[in-house]
Structures are given as C-alpha cells and as structure tokens.
Amino acid sequence: MGQDVDHRSEYDLSGSPRRGLVMATLSFFAGLTTIAFYGVAGPTFQEALGISGALLGLLLSSPHISKVLLRVPFGAWVDDIGARKPILILMGTTLVGFVGLVGTLFLFYPDNFGSHLYVPLLVFGILAGAGSATFSVGIAQTSYWFPEDKQGFAMGVFGGAGNIGPGIVNSVIPFLIGVAGLALAYSSWLVFMLAATALYFAYGANPYYFQLLDKGLDSDRAQSVAEDLGQEVFPGGGTWDSLKESSTNYWTWVLVFLYTVSYGGGFTALTTWYPTYWNLFHGMSLAMAGLFAGVFVVYGSLVRIPGGSLSDRFGGENVAAVSFAVMVVGAAIATVSQAVIPAFVGMMILGTGMGVANAAVFELVPKYVPDAVGGASGWIGGIGGAGTLLVLPILGVFVDVYGEIGYARGFVVIAGLSAICVAVSVLLKFYGPEPAEEIDESAMH
C-alpha cells in the first residue's frame, strides 16, 4: 500500500478503478441515450415532417450510423492514448447534433416544419449518435482499470447502469413533450448532455499506464509502475496494431456475432422498435408505449450487473448459452402474442436473456483477445451494433408483408438467431482458449 501511495504521489497520478468505472459509465449512460434520439418521438416527427414510413425508418436509424462507424476506430484508439480524449470528442460531437436539432425546433416547429428539413435532421441525428460510441471506448477503459478476476463485475456495472439511459429517455421525453412541447423537451435533454460532458471533463481519468506514458515514461517502465498499482491488463500496441491484431484473431469475430444478436440486433433494435410496437400494434398512447419500452430498457440494462457477476463465477460461455436460450423462449412468446400481458411477459424474458448475454460476451473479451482488448471492443461494439440497421428493416418488412400481425411475427427472426447463438456458446465451452492464469497454475503443478 505504501508503494502505491508513493507511486501515485511521485508521478502525480489521479483516479482509481472505482472512479474510472463511474466516469466511464456516466459517459456511456449519457451517450447511449442518443440511440433513441428520434425514436422516442417517432410518430410526432413523422406527422410533422409528412414523410413515409421508409423515410421515418431511416431517420430513426440515423444515430446508429455514427455508432457503427465510430465504435471501431475510437475503441481501438484507447489502446494508443487512453479513453479520456476519445470520450470528450464523441460527447462534443453529440452536443453539436443536439444544438442543431434544438435550434431547428425553436426556429421552425411547428408552423414551418416540413420535408424540406429532412436532410438537416438526418445530419443532426448522425452527429448526435456519436455519443453511443462511448460504449467501445468505455469497455476498453474499464478493462484496463480492473484486474482480470473483476472483469465480469466491472463490465456488468458499466453495461448495466450505462444502458439505462435510453429507457429513461423513452419514459421521460414523451411526457415532457406532452407538458412542454417538442422544443423544450429536447432542450432539457441537451442540458443533461452538457452536464454529463462537463462532469467527465472534470473527473474522467485514464488508467495509470496511459497517465504514465503522458508523463514521459517508456512503455516498459509505465507498465511496471502500473502493475505495482494493481493494473493487470495492458494494450499490446497502438490503435492500428490493436485493430489489426484483434481482427486477425478469429475469436473476435465469434464474439462479434454473439454481440450482434444479443445487443445490436437485439437489445438496441428493440429499444427503438418497442415504442412503435406498443403504440401501433397494441394501441397505447405514445407516453404509455414509451413507458413500456423504458421498462424493457431499464430492466434489460440492470440485469447485466448480476449477469457480469454470474459470468465471473460460472464462466462466460456457460452463462451465454443459458441466456441465449432464454432469448429463444422470450422471442417465441412475443411471436405468438397478440394480447398485452403475454406480450409484456415475452418482452421481459427477452430483456433478461439479452442483458445477461451482453455481460457474458464482454466478460470473454480479455480471455479471448487479451493483447488487443480495445481493438476487439471496437470491432464488437461497432459491427455488433450494426445489427440494429439490419434487424429494424426486417421487422418492418414483416409488417409490410403480414399487416398488423407482422409486429408480432417479426420476433421469429430474433428467436432463430438466438438459437444459433446457443449452439455457438456451447461450442466455445469446449473449444475456446483456456485462461492464461489457469495455464500458468497447471504448469506450476
């Protein structure tokens, strides 16, 4: 302990694993709210703009475009310079998109609001969506702050608490729109984003290794000092080295697939889809539909926390296999449900499986790609997040083909993909790599 104190004072280091986790979670919590940037008020924007369902779908997807494009390079960039600068750039870009939308609403809504504003609104959505890329950055930052035996817990807290944001937005913003109007509702959201960015600027700190590099130490000395302070996970190289190394590791792509189904094509797709599903299929008001969707998001997010601890205890492969099986059950119920109560039950079962599966997948990252955690997190978060852009249109096609009942029948897609993931997770149990610490212990005996 004395050596830790000496190192911290000698090199004027700041932060701690707990503070690093809190700040990373705050940035992700705020940044991820942007995936619901337009979806939370989708019917309102469609009516005000006078656009088709296809154009509305594109508008709803606009924040996901920047999420997909930015998660890979920004996640890998952490391996080069740490997370502080990437997070501040992403949050700053998000603020530009918010300011653009809020300004447009005050200037044009409702009297001069129309299809001529569609392209600018698309651009604002893409800019605002940059904040959701804090996911891959925060995953890498959290990995470097915590020892290997605490990865599941840390990832569960980060992903669980961080993912609550869209659920709160889905619940609160429709209410604010009804009380104060569209412009003021989005203005309150902008104030929150400004506050979150300011807090991260004031208290966000890189893990010790990156702070030491900034102070001029070479990588070997920086790693030695950081190890004395308790850091166990270190980057194998810079940004492009991390991307290259993780991309050539086939385990990265297995985890990408699992995450695509559980998160990008599962959790975030349904986060955007459920407000419309409850509103148009079950006839709920926009506020009530948002509340139901918010319950799904908050619950599915919080369950990641025990999901991470379960992964630490029982192994990510085992927990992933069980959680994907739970997703099959939930999706099957949703597929055949036309009444509110069974549909709600199916939604909650889906939230359970998706939340735990998300935690399980990222518990496996340091084990399967130990030398390029940032790069792997970028690929997984970026490409895995792209599942939203694929699944949402497919769900829409089911409605076009089958009519109103298509809102339910579309869940068969999630059921089928989840069943494949069960098989993949079981195979990982038998053919995945052994943890390095277990190999070392066996060698000692």
TrEMBL record:
Record-annotated membrane-spanning stretches: 21-42, 87-109, 121-140, 152-177, 183-203, 250-274, 280-302, 314-334, 340-365, 377-399, 405-428
Keywords of this entry: Membrane, Nitrate assimilation, Transmembrane, Transmembrane helix
Membrane-related topology note: Multi-pass membrane protein
Span of domain Major facilitator superfamily (MFS) profile: 19-433
Any single Pfam family the record assigns to this protein: MFS_1
Molecular function as annotated in GO: nitrate transmembrane transporter activity
GO cellular component: a single term: membrane
Any one GO biological process: nitrate assimilation
Main location: membrane
UniProt similarity note: Belongs to the major facilitator superfamily. Nitrate/nitrite porter (TC 2.A.1.8) family.
Name used for this protein in its record: Nitrate/nitrite transporter
Provenance organism: Natronococcus occultus SP4
Highest classification ranks of the organism: Archaea, Methanobacteriati, Methanobacteriota, Stenosarchaea group, Halobacteria
